[in-house]
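RECORD TYPE: inverse folding
INPUT: structure tokens
STRUCTURE:
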């Protein structure tokens, strides 16, 4: 018999259960208040129903109201500077939440560098990892990913180039002073395809093929993780200097729109950029996050012609003939300016500076749970970007009669290189549980293409007055498809081990590189002679790719990896990884890594790693060939770039390219001090053997070179004056140290301050050369394979030091961001030792950025600021007044013969101060 009291208790419990179930079964309105760690109201906190786009934000008093929420939902509370909290409702309709302060953003959980099922704080990892949040990405007015990273991460460096053909539109980017092709870029942990462009002009990373990160809209990025350590054993080829993993937004709710406009202090370089991000849920089972960007950036002109009169155009040196009086010089200036005015010459037509660019980009990131019971999820991410641009080449003077046609351009002309970059990518995959393992099957496809159209030009070799003034010059295209299957599982208390994370998998990749020829007129050698000398063939500024240059080459790669990570004890974390790869075009490679972290005291630890790595030669380096006009030691030359299968390359004794091999050592210290300060110090050494470089130019003036070129003529084109090719020519050592310190302070109930100091110091030296018997046995060819100019570019062409100091202050709705970056000195040397008097060291400079912002109302924020607040410029380039370098014809020289800004080896560009305003709208 059931006791009556028991019956009453049961009825009450049933009633309570039914009431709760009813609350859970229907959608409710949840209200509440959010406080900060000190108990003060916290406005602007995002409140989101997890897995959906249903969200709101707190008002000025920290209060919120969210409608149409299931009683079983979990709410996510997030705000800048606070730890995100997830609160299950369990049927409740009112909440009071207190968000704890995020001690430091450098303490964020990262996934790059480890295949553990759970991420670790970056001060708890075995290798150094920088974490760059979405807030940092949009704090200032750098609007491209490479520029953003340059000013935030000291070990990363990228500068916009000018007068460098395709490199004007694809910024070369480096990590730890190594090459653009020695850092691996990932998106959501998946390998990103490289650019189609190979850098063959005098820029940092000459001879390399990098990844165009600027095709990814910043609005799509949740965070960027920069792994500063060798990781070829974990991720494969290219990860010698480290890995950059771009994590796309996956938890956005509602709409976020941003618009930025600005210009330089010289009223050029106008920028208008609009970004948008839209996120919404898929019935509590997934999300879709869509981002887009439009950017229009006009050119920057730093030729000096806006303030100085044109220099005498009658000499190739750009200087006045000797013996002229001051009055005669004035008369010549007046005559030239009158001639310019008469013929409608535009001073802006001889500009020197960054290119015009216009970018349209979009990205999607999405996931959907197919079978909740087994955790089976489908995911997708992908993007399309189109960038068009226009950049000036070098001015063709009317006195350079083999390169111009006075009947078309009586005053000479400036050719324009117009590029179109089309980039597309897609990642599709499935992940779930298989026999207790987290399994991930994915396929990643990417394609990058660069098309050239040359305008305001001509083919001087065509009969007088008959040349078109624009040409299609051809296209480069690179595509990559990667299929990957990986398994990961964490075991607890495996024998004597506290934990063991096991990861293994395989990958199959196919690469393809194509060159398409341009219009016939863009490369053909016509019948025109100037005296007895054939006029220059092809479109001036950029000669088109010839049918003999056209190609379609592919290769495949298969690899497997094993990664073991274990907390051997409470104090010791050890990671061991190995990878084996086989390429269809050059063979196999095995690499390994061992890394460890030991906790000496609470908050103090040592970490270090030892690894060997490799980088496969890119298809572009393996097969690229073309002819181009370049300046070397003050001479204008037609330079031929040949691939390793070419008879000319073989005549120099150069064999097929093989992989670069590296050995990486690192040792570091991590510390947390006074709960608010984190400090990491990491020293490293990277030895690279058989490093692939683009050789120096072997000149036809050398009898041996002339014999080789004569024996291997190029039908239908001018005799070339120089030849260059790719070779595993040098062995290098890079040593350096990274230091990062961060402190977050709460100055009052509504006041917060974050201070960051970060620095990188590095030095790269060429330790030895790998030549050939042909070159070594000809004394006149020695020291030419990799001359002093190329060595200086490799060793000193990038800053050997960079220091970043920043302060981010917030008070209620106001914010102030102040940052100053010291770019270390760089050096240039001339290829000819007899011209060493024009070698130059460009001094270190500080560049300061300032942004002031206000959250005007709940949905609208305003920012104004200045990049390069003090209008700092790099040193100007020393100019030899006795050479015929054409840039002198439109740049005045001072008393020390310093004229234009350097094209390649400058630390931070020469745009000067940039003023901007920004509007942010969220809904």
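DESIGNED SEQUENCE:
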């Amino acid at each position: 018999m059931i006791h009556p009291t028991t019956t009453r208790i049961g009825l009450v419990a049933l009633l309570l259960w039914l009431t709760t179930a009813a609350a859970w079964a229907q959608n409710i309105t949840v209200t509440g208040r959010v406080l900060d760690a000190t108990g003060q109201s916290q406005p602007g906190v995002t409140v989101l129903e997890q897995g959906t786009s249903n969200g709101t934000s707190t008002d000025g008093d920290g209060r919120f109201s969210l409608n149409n929420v299931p009683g079983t939902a979990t709410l996510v509370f997030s705000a800048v500077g606070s730890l995100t909290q997830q609160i299950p409702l369990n049927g409740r309709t009112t909440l009071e939440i207190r968000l704890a302060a995020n001690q430091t953003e450098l303490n964020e959980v990262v996934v790059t560098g480890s295949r553990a099922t759970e991420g670790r704080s970056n001060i708890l990892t075995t290798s150094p990892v920088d974490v760059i949040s979405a807030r940092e990405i949009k704090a200032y007015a750098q609007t491209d990913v490479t520029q953003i990273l340059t000013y935030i991460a000291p070990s990363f460096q990228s500068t916009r180039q000018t007068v460098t053909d395709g490199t004007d539109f694809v910024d070369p980017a480096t990590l730890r002073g190594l090459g653009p092709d020695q850092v691996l870029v990932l998106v959501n942990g998946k390998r990103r395809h490289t650019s189609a462009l190979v850098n063959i002009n005098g820029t940092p990373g000459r001879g390399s093929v990098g990844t165009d990160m600027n095709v990814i809209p910043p609005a799509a990025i949740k965070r960027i993780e920069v792994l500063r350590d060798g990781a070829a054993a974990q991720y494969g080829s290219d990860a010698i200097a480290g890995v950059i993993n771009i994590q796309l937004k996956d938890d956005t709710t509602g709409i976020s729109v941003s618009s930025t406009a600005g210009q330089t202090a010289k009223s050029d370089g106008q920028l208008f950029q609009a970004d948008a991000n839209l996120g919404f849920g898929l019935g509590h089972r997934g999300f879709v996050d869509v981002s887009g960007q439009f950017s229009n950036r006009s050119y920057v002109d730093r030729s000096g012609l806006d303030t100085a009169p044109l220099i005498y155009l009658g000499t190739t040196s750009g200087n006045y003939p000797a013996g002229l009086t001051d009055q005669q010089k004035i008369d010549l200036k007046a005559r030239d300016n009158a001639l310019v005015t008469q013929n409608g010459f535009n001073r802006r037509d001889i500009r020197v500076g960054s290119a015009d660019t216009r970018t349209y980009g979009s990205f999607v990131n999405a996931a959907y749970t197919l079978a909740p019971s087994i955790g089976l999820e489908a995911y997708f991410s992908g993007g399309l970007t189109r960038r068009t641009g226009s950049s000036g080449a070098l001015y063709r003077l009317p006195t350079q009669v083999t390169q111009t046609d006075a009947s078309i351009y009586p005053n000479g002309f400036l050719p324009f290189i117009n590029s179109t970059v089309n980039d597309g990518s897609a990642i599709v995959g499935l992940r779930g549980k298989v026999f207790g393992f987290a399994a991930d099957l994915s396929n990643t496809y990417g394609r990058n293409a660069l098309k050239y159209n040359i305008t305001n030009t001509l083919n001087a070799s065509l009969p007088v007055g008959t040349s078109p003034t624009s040409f299609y010059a051809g296209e480069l295209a690179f595509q990559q498809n990667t299929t990957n299957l990986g398994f990961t599982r964490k075991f607890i208390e495996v024998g004597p081990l506290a934990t063991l994370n096991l990861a293994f998998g395989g990958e199959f990749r196919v690469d393809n590189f194509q060159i398409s020829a341009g219009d016939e007129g863009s490369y053909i050698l016509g019948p025109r002679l100037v005296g007895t000398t054939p006029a220059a063939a092809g479109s001036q500024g950029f000669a088109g790719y010839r049918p003999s240059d056209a190609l379609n080459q592919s290769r495949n790669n298969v690899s497997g990896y094993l990664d073991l990570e274990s907390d051997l004890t409470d104090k010791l974390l050890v990671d061991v990884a190995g990878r084996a790869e086989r390429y269809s075009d050059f063979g196999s490679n095995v690499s390994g890594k061992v890394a460890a972290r030991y906790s000496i005291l609470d908050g103090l630890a040592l970490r270090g790693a030892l690894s060997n790595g490799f980088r496969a030669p890119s298809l572009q380096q393996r097969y690229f060939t073309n002819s181009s006009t370049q300046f070397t030691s003050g001479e204008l030359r037609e330079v031929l770039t040949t691939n390793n299968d070419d008879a000319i390359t073989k005549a120099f004794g150069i064999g097929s390219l093989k992989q670069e091999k590296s050995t990486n050592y690192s040792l570091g210290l991590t510390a947390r001090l006074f709960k608010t300060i984190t400090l990491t110090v990491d020293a490293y050494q990277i030895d690279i053997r058989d490093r692939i470089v683009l050789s120096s130019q072997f000149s036809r003036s050398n009898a041996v070179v002339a014999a080789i070129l004569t024996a291997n003529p190029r039908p239908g084109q001018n005799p070339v004056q120089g030849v260059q090719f790719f070779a595993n020519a040098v062995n290098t050592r890079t040593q350096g140290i990274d230091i990062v310190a961060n402190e977050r302070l709460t100055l009052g109930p509504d006041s917060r301050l974050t201070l960051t100091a970060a620095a990188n110091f590095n030095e790269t030296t060429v330790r030895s050369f790998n030549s050939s018997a042909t070159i070594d046995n000809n004394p006149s060819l020695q020291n030419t394979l990799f001359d002093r100019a190329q060595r200086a570019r490799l060793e000193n062409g990038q800053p050997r030091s960079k220091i970043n100091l920043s302060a981010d202050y917030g008070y209620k709705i106001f914010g102030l961001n102040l940052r100053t970056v010291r770019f270390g000195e760089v050096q240039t040397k001339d290829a000819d030792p007899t011209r060493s008097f024009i070698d130059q060291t460009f001094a270190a400079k500080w560049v300061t950025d300032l942004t002031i912002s206000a959250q005007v109302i709940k949905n609208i924020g305003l920012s104004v600021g200045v990049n390069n607040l003090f209008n700092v410029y790099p040193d100007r380039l020393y100019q030899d007044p006795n050479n015929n370098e054409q840039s002198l014809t439109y740049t005045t020289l001072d008393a020390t013969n310093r004229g234009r800004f350097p094209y390649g080896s400058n630390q931070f560009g020469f745009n000067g101060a940039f003023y901007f305003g920004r509007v942010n709208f969220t809904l």
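NOTES: The mean pLDDT is 84.
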